[in-house]
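Friendly challenge for the regulars: who can give me the structure tokens for this chain first? No prize, just bragging rights.
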Amino acid sequence: MPLIKPFAGLRPVPERAEEVVAPPYDVLNSAEARERAAGRPWSFLHISKAEIDLPEGTDPYDPSVYAKSAENMQKMLQEGILIREEKPCYYAYRLIMDGHSQVGLVATASVADYDINRVRKHEYTRPAKEDDRVRQIEALNAQTGPVLLAYKSQADMDAILEETTKQPPLVDVTADDGVQHTFWVIDDDATIEKISAGFEAMNAIYIADGHHRSASASRVAKSHEMSGDGNQNCDYFLSVIYPHNQMNILDYNRVITDLKGLSKDELLEKVKTAFTVTEESSAVKPAKATEFGMYVDGQWYRLNINDELVPNDPVASLDVSLLANNLIEPFLGVSDPRTDNRIDFVGGIRGLAGLEKRVNSGEMAIAFSLYPTSMEALMAVADAGEVMPPKSTWFEPKLADGLVSHVLD
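First reply, four minutes later:
Bragging rights claimed.
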């Protein structure tokens, strides 16, 4: 099977796109989604977060939610808000946020290649989250949340996408968070063939965000294979694939509730065994890898880890690993960040002020700012068949839900 394929997308009619496009299903809780969709009957949140149309307090995983999601999608089809593309095609999708621009390809990616790790992973998944996406796909007979992928930048593929953006777009909307989403249809047969061939020549593409969505697509494909219904659309999953050098990763910072019985001075003495510690007069935003900021008791410190503590290993050399292995675990006693409720994670989109606020309020005792993980580091981990520590990457801007869906028939 080819690595990627064009598909006949289900998308909003252009004049209604602004009413439909919504934040990803997993960045809003139910209350936030209900508020964002208020007065917007065609918001895709009525499909991706259908509990907002049921009584408050409804469990988002209740069967009634998936049924309501399917009902809402059918209503949008019947009202002509959503339409199906007449032929399989690719799409170009440009995101612009705060001056940063990235142009990617909307395609379907091979489940078979995901299963053999040609579509490379770097995270574990949780069964409950997989189950949710499986139920959503089965209820809608469609994949609505695209997986964010990356390919190692290639001049010919990058040029096709860039050339496409010189044409009039099908959709161009600016969301209420200021992110601009621009969408083009690529339906020229020769261009489609060239794109398909270009990706087929690649050794691998990489999951950036969407491990649960891709894992659930694999489970749905296996279910259909076992049923023998011959549905080959299930063998591919909805994706947006960007050149790796256009991806924008922000820092993913840490806050911890207590100092494990240590005073600030006792902690500093321990930290100095592994790091060079410099007191700073303002918030520390690390300027390079292996450099960290630490905020405790109203004071910022710059930490530079000793060179001999940086191993030649794709996972252990990540900044999130260096901080965990040389400070957070040995000195603060957090050994499993997946399960220890003493640690929390703050996306870089909230800025350093977000860290100070958590500590100054007394909710947390200490905060750490990190340098963003690079795409090269992510790909090195995936190429090695390894898994990154939790909360290693925070991608911005986020893909929108509702611009296009992949129907499985």
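Residues 211-227 form the longest helix (17 residues). DSSP finds 13 helices and 21 strands in the chain. Your move, everyone else.
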